[in-house]
Amino acid sequence: MALELRDIHKHFGEVRANDGISLTVEAGTLHGLLGENGAGKSTLMKVLSGFHAADSGEVVLDGAPVRLASPDDAIAAGIGMLHQDPLVFLPFSVLDNFVLGAHAKGRLDRRQAAADLAELCERFGFDIPPDALARTLTVGERQQLEIVRLLWLGARVLILDEPTTGISESQRQKLFATLRTLAGDGMIVIFVSHKLEEVEQLCERVTVMRRGEVVGEAEMPVPAEQLVEMMFGQAVTAGDRPHVDLGAPRLELSDVRTGQGLLSGRPLSLTVREGEVLGLAGMEGSGQRTLLRICAGLEAPSSGRVVVGGADLTRKRYRGFLKAGVKYLPAGRLEEGLIAGLSITEHFVLASDERSFFVDWDAARNHARDRIGHYTIKGTDESPAEALSGGNQQRLLLAMLPPQLQVLLMEHPTRGLDIESADWVWEQLLERRSQGTAIVFASADLDELLRYADRIAVFFAGELLRIVDGPTATVDEIGLLMGGQVREAR
Amino acid sequence: MGGFFEAFLELFETTTAASIVAGAAPLLFAAIGETISEKAGVINLSLDGSMMLAALAGFVGAFETGSVWLGFPAAAAVGMAVALVVAFASIELRLNQVAVGFVLVLLCTELSVFLGASYVGRQPIGVSPLEIPLLSSIPFFGRVLFDHNLVVYAALASVLASYVFIYRTRKGLELQGVGERPEAAHARGVAVNRARYLYTAIGGALVGIAGAAFSLDVKLGWSDRPTRNLGWIALAIVIFGGWHPFRVAAGVFLFGALQAFALKLQPEFPNLTQVLPIIPFPAMILALVVVNWRSLVRWLDRYPALRAILRSDPPSAIGTHFEVD
Amino acid sequence: MSWRARFGAIALPVGLALVAAIFLLVVVARTNPWDPLRLLVEGSIGWPPFEERSAGRLSDTIMVWVPLVLASAGLVVTFAAGMWNIGIEGQIILGAIAATWVAREMTGLSRPVLILATIVAGAIGGLLWGMLAGVLRTQGGVNEIFAGLGLDFVALGLTTYLIIGPWKRAGIASTSGTDVFEREAWLPAVGNLRLSPLAVGIALASVVGVYLLLRGTRFGLRLKAVGRNRQSAFLMGIPTNRYLLGSFAICGALAGIAGTVQATGFHHKLVPAVSGGYGFLAILVVLLAAFRAPWVAPIAFFFAMIAVGSTQLQLRLDLNSSLGGVLQGVLVLFTLLGLGWRGYRALRTTPAAGAEP
Description:
The complex is a heterotrimer of chains A (490), B (325) and C (357).
Chain A (H helix, E strand, L loop, with lengths): L1 E11 L2 E12 L3 E5 L6 H8 L7 E6 L2 E3 L4 H7 L1 E4 L11 H6 L10 H15 L14 H14 L4 E5 L7 H16 L3 E5 L3 H7 L2 E6 L2 E7 L4 H9 L16 E9 L10 E6 L3 E5 L6 H9 L6 E6 L2 E2 L5 H6 L2 E4 L3 H4 L7 H8 L9 H14 L15 H10 L7 E5 L7 H16 L3 E5 L3 H7 L2 E6 L2 E7 L5 H8 L8
Parallel strand pairs in A: 3-8, 3-9, 6-7, 7-8, 13-18, 13-19, 16-17, 17-18
Antiparallel strand pairs in A: 1-2, 1-4, 4-5, 9-10, 11-12, 11-14, 14-15, 19-20
Chain B lengths: L1 H9 L3 H10 L1 H15 L7 H19 L2 H24 L5 H20 L12 E3 L9 H6 E3 H19 L1 H11 L1 H6 L4 H27 L11 H11 L4 H20 L7 H4 L4 H13 L1 H8 L2 H7 L15
Antiparallel strand pairs in B: 1-2
Helix pairs in contact in B: 2-13, 3-8, 3-11, 3-12, 3-13, 4-5, 4-6, 4-11, 4-12, 5-6, 5-11, 8-9, 9-11, 12-13, 12-15
Chain C lengths: L2 H26 L5 H12 L9 H26 L7 H18 L5 H28 L5 H21 L32 H20 L1 H11 L1 H6 L4 H28 L10 H11 L4 H25 L5 H27 L8
Helix pairs in contact in C: 1-13, 2-12, 3-7, 3-10, 3-11, 3-12, 4-5, 4-6, 4-10, 5-6, 5-10, 7-8, 7-12, 8-10, 11-12, 11-13, 12-13
C-alpha cells in the first residue's frame, strides 16, 4: 500500500499555497513533513483530509485514485487527520466524542462503543475514562481520543499536524510509541512538524516544503543543518547596518511568566534599550505573541515585573501602557488595527490626541491629505480602510502612530507586502529607532530578522529558548533554534 | 400569609395539577421546538409571530375541513416555512438571525390578524378528550398526566422524544455537534448546513404545532393575537432551561404553576395575575448572568454540584454562520 | 453603493411590498386594491394630501411620528455602537412611568416647570433602563437582545402593576389606565388637537442632534469605531465598554422622552400598552433607513401614516387595520433579504482575497 500525491495545486487568490506537489508515502513508514510557516504543509494536509478541494492534481491510494471533495470522502477512503487543536467537542463526554461522526453507522450502541474504546485505549496504554468530559482532558489526552477514534473508523492513513504542541513529555513519548506501533502495523503515518529533533527521532523519511513546493526529500538520518538549509534556503548577506548607540533601557521584563500555557515555564527576563531593535523568531504559536501582549499590557503576567522607561507598569491596564508610550501593532491589520468602513481621514482623527468635542472635518481632511502624501499611501482621504491594499494599510497604521514612542511592538511588519512597501516600512521603523524608540518585532521571515534585528530572541515550544546577536547570527543557527536544537553555530 | 401557604398547597390538588399540565401543551411544543433549532446553532427568534400565524393556520385548517386533526399539519407547515426563512437568510445570505427573526415576529403577527379577521368568533373546534385506561387510575399521577387528550400526550411525549433523540441517538449527537463546534462536525463528515436546515425546519414545525395546540385545545377558536407573548415566554424558558428538554419542560411547568398560584391568590392579591407572566424574563436574565458573568462563573466552577444545577452553557456556535474555508 | 444600486435597494422592496399588499387585498380580502391604498393616505394626511378638514388626522399622524422618530433616533446611536437595543420598548415604558410619577406627584409646580420636569424625568427613567441593559451586556456578558427583551417585559409588568395597584383609579382597579393627568401636566397642544409643537420640536432636534453627534463629534466617531470593530477600537485606546454604555444611555433617554410624549401628550394618562409598540416599529424604521439619521424622519413619517391611516380601513372599508403592519413587515423583510442577496452575490463573484495560505 502506498499514498501518492500527484501534482497537487491549490491557490487562495494570488497565493499559491501548493504549487505542483508530488509525493509518495509508503505503507509502514513514518513520514515527516517539514517546512517553515506558510510553506504550504497545512494546506496540503487539508487537501488530503478533504477540508479543501485541490484546484488540480490527484491523490492515489493503493493504486486507485480517490475523490476527496469533503472530509466525508477522506474518512471513507481511510484517511484520518489529527488537527493541531484536536477537533473534539468540549462539553461532550469522551464516549460521545468517540461515537460522533457520520461514518460510525448503525444504531448507537454505547456499550459496544465503550468496549471498543476500552480495547483501543488498552492497546496503546491510553487512560481516558469514557465518562469524562472532553473539557477536562489535557490536549494530549484529546489527541489520544482523536487517534483511537480515527482508528476505530478504519483509518489507514493518519496525518498529524504539529501534534506535540502543548503536550507533556510523557504524553509525547506515548504518542511516539503509538505512532511507531501503527507504522509497524503497516499504516501510513504523516507527521507534520517543525521540530527537527522529533523528526529525527521518529521519522524514516522526510519531505521538506518551501513556498508551496517540495524542495527536498531524504531518508533519515540527515544532519539537521541540511534540513534547515532546505527549509529556509540560502542565507542572504545582511546589508550594512548603520551604527546606533544604545541608550537607556526602554523596556525591561524581569522574571516574567504566565499562569498557564505559553511562557508559563522558565521566568523570562530581557531588556530592550533606546534605539535597539529586538527580533522575535520562532514557529507560529511559540510564545512570541504572548510576549508582545505582555509588553503591551494586554495580558498581565502571573509573576515578574514590566518596566517601561523606568516606570513600573506591572498589572497596569492597557491604556496605562498606551499613555506610557507603548504601542502594539498586531498582525491582523484589518482585524486588530484598522476599522473597516471608516475612511483614512476618520482613522487619523481617531488616532489624534485632540480633545475638542466637535471634529473640524475640513482641517482633518487637510491633515489626512498631508499625511497621505507624506507616507505615500495609495488612496484618498475618503478611502475606507478595507479598500486599501495590505501595504497601504500598513502605511496607514504607521502614519497613525504618535510622534513620540518609548516602545513599538510589531507583529509581522512586512507580511504579505511587496518589496517596495516592505522596504518602506523598515525605513520608517529605522527612522523611529534612530529617534530613540525601542522596537520589538515578531517575524516568520528569517531574512527580515537577520537584516534588521540587533538581537534575536528565539522561541520554541512556548518558551524563550535563547537570545542571539543579530549581526553575527546565521540562518542555520536560527533555524536550528526554531526547531528546538541548541547547538553552537558552526 | 396563611393565604400564600394554602394556595401553595392547592397546587398539589389533582385538579389544579392536571390543569397545569393540560395548559402547558403549547409552551412545551414551542420551547422544545426552539430547543432543537438552537441546539443545532440556529436562533429562531420569530417564535412569537410564527406561533401566532400557525395558530391561525391550525384553526382555519380544522374549520374549513371540519376535521380537527387536519389543523395540525397546516400549522406545522406554516411554522416550518417561517423557520426555513430564518435558516435560509442565515445560511445562504449570512444575515443576522436575530434581525430576520425579529422582523418575522412583527410580520407574522400582523399577517395573522389580517388573514384571520374573517375567522374571529367562528365556531371553535376542539380536540376531544382521551383518557388512557389503566394509567389514568394511578392515584394522583393518573389524573394529572393521563386524563387529557392526544395533544397533551403528544406534548409530553415530545419532551421525552427530543431528549432521547438529542442525547441517546447518533443523529442527535450530530445535531449537538453542529451547534457546538461546526468545524469539528464537518471534519467528521457531518453536512453542517444541511443539518441546520433540517433541525430548524423540525423545530419550526413543532412551534407551528404549538400554535395549533393553542387554538384547537387551550383557548379554542380564533381571536385577535391569541398567543400574544407566548412565543417570547417560550424563548425565555429555553434559555432558563439551559437548552435541555427536561429542564425546559420543568421551566414550562414551573411557569404554569406560578400562574395557577397567582389565580388562587387572586382574592387576596388581585394584581398578581397581571404581573406574573413576566416572571420567566427576569429568570432568563438571571440564567444568562449565571452563564456569562465571569467572576461568578469562576466562583461557581469551584462548586461543581451547585454549578450543575445553576449553570448550563448555550451551544457554543449558536447564532453563527458556518462555511468551509 | 452606486446610485442605481441604492435605487434598487429602496425601489425593489417597496415594489414587492406593494405587490404583496395588493395580492392580499385582491386574493384574501377580495376587494379592489386602490381604494384601501388611497385610504391609507387619506386617513393619515388627507386626500388630497394636507387638505384642511383632515387636520385632526394629520395631527394624530404627527403625534405618532414623534415617539417613533425619538425612538428611531436613539436606535441609530445604539446600532452605530453595534448593539441591538431590543430593550427600547421597556425604555419607552420607563420614561412614561417616570413622567407619570412627576405628573401625579409634583402638581404644585408651575406649568412650564412641571412639563420640563416630566420630560427630564422621562429621559432619566429611560436612560436608567437602557443603562441596565448596557451594564448586563458589558459587565454581565448577557447578550443585549435577550437582556433587552427581558427588561421589556419587566417594564410591561411594572406598568400593569402600577395601574392596577398603587396608581389605580379611585374606586376601581381597571387595566384601562390611571386617572387622566391634571391638564397642567399635558404637553401644550394646538387648539383641540393633540398636536404638540414642543414634542415635534424635540423630535426634530433629536434627529438633528443624533446626526450631528455621529457625523460631527469625536464621541460619535469613536462610537462608530467601537460598533464596527471593537477589537481595533480597544487597541486604539478607546474605552469600549464606556462607549457602549454611553450609547445605551443616549438611546434610553430619547426613548424615555418618547414615553413621556406618549403619556403626557397622547394618552394623558398611563396605560398598560403605553409604548404603542413604537419601540419595535422604530427598529424596523432604522433597518429600513440603513441606520442613517436623516432618513429616519421621512421613513418614520411613512410608517406613522400607515399606522394612522390603516385604522381608517377598519372604519370605512371593514378591512382589518393590520394591513398596515403587514405592509411594514414585508417592506423591511424584503429590504433585509435584498441586502443579504447583494452581499451574497458580491461574495460569490469576487475571488476570496487574502485567504490564509
